[in-house]
Amino acid sequence: MCIRDSVNVEYPGGTSGVAAENMWDGTATVTLNLLGDYWIDNQTFWNNQAQSTTSGNGPLFDVSRPIQPNGYSLLLQTNLWPTATFSGRKMVLKFPARHGFALSSSPVETVDIYWLSRIINETNTCDSNNCAAPCLCGTFRILRADPNNIRATVSSQAISGTLWESDVRKTGLYISIYLKYDIYTTSATRAITVRRIFTINDYLSLTDMVLTVTNFTTELQIFIPPQIEYNVAVNDKITIVLLSQLLAAQVVPGGATTVLTIYAVPTPQTYLDRYVLTEDDIRAKENTLVLQLQYDTFCFGNSWEPSYAQKLNLFISQVTSSGGLARFSIASFTTTNLTLRIDKDKNYDISATSIIKISVPREVMCSLEYPKAIPDAVSPDPYYLLSMPIRSTPGKLYATLPKVTEQFPRTTPLFFNVELSGETFQTSILRPSFNVQSADPQRGFISSIASSCEGMRDNSNRSRGNITCSYNSSYDVSVVENVTVYFNSDMVAGKLLATTENVVPLVVTPLIGNLTVDQNNSGRVFYLDEGKVVSGGFSFTAVSYTHLRAHETPEHLVCRLLLEKKKNK
Known about the structure:
The chain is 14% helix and 33% strand. It is α+β, with helices and mostly antiparallel strands and 569 residues long.
């Protein structure tokens, strides 16, 4: 017959209740000794009927006093029922494991025991005649876990493997903190509280941290999104301290302090396989630069992926030159070498040394870290730069002018070709300048012909052109004249005066002719015939003093005056 306190409850080891740790682990047992009757070994009925709190004829359990945050009521809600072993007056209940079983609001949870008639021998189970309702026959106690037994374990990339700083940049940081014998309170989801888990770290930003409590409040998942700027030179140690206010038991669990190590990746280094180019190299042929990489690999991806072309274009966009650069592209690449092709450009021209700058974006690096140039970076911001000079080369002017007599410029236009090496012409219309070696420059090429010289650049090859000089019947020289052509800086693309050491000058030889006198009614008429060269000077007939004075040069005047002064003394 079931009456109140008709069941004597025994706990393992003579304790005063069932330990919450045993409920968590699945090792909790309770022995119910029936007073004044014995149990019917009705295992099938127990398994099928005893799980209902509203019907059936087996023991029922009620935790209405008090209701713990995650106590025995959790077992009822999830249908985790104890198994029963019957032996006469003794029934042993064994409770299944329930991770997440914890008590917090009070140190003890009391569970009331009820039963109906079908598992005890006597059919009249109630001390009243109302057998339709279950009768309260006893209680058993569940004790809160010993704070010394509560444990926290941390799982992250650093625990399951080596956590590198590149992982933080690419995938972020995943940390799970598991509790044993306790649960997290709702305040654990507040970022402002959880940030206090971490010690102050200058490199790791916790602003966008995402928090999730899972596994029936026993696991705190912390996700720190990828941080592209995260970069450390030495291993970064982060101390994780689990605070007591996060736990239901309000205690600091064992294992609550964990040091998480993020291992530094050696800074990638890059260098080029050559140190200098000249503008002649670019004009003459296709050139290549090989960018070599240490401590990292290129990650352009597969050619069919959309990001592949994007990364290639991104890399190309970071190749610049201070003086302008010919067309360039990526010829090939491996995981550690990238070959940059610079196309041939016969019109390439610079006036001073130009610097090729190659900024390696971190998006093409597998570590997502900016590489550093060897030996020194040109600029640390925004990217570490590789640099290589393109040296300008002195321009040379090639031209071949004829050897003629002074009669040629009087009657025939002068035509000659010009060509630059190491330079190109800046303008399509060419206006040359001239140097003249002559004892009588005011009467020769400069005064009568030079201003008419003009030409055109060959647009298919801007280093070539042709010049035409108009004839002038008044051209006259009395001594051999050497005329050298050159171009001023405004004519040359590189703004450098091209050297004229390879220019064959125009050589004009004066004609020595006969002067004849024709007498007519008005007086004497003189004719100068320079149609042929006569050795030994000019052959003259007599001329008047007036004629001599009319053709007197300043030098002759000085000589005449000196002679007259001497004669008058």
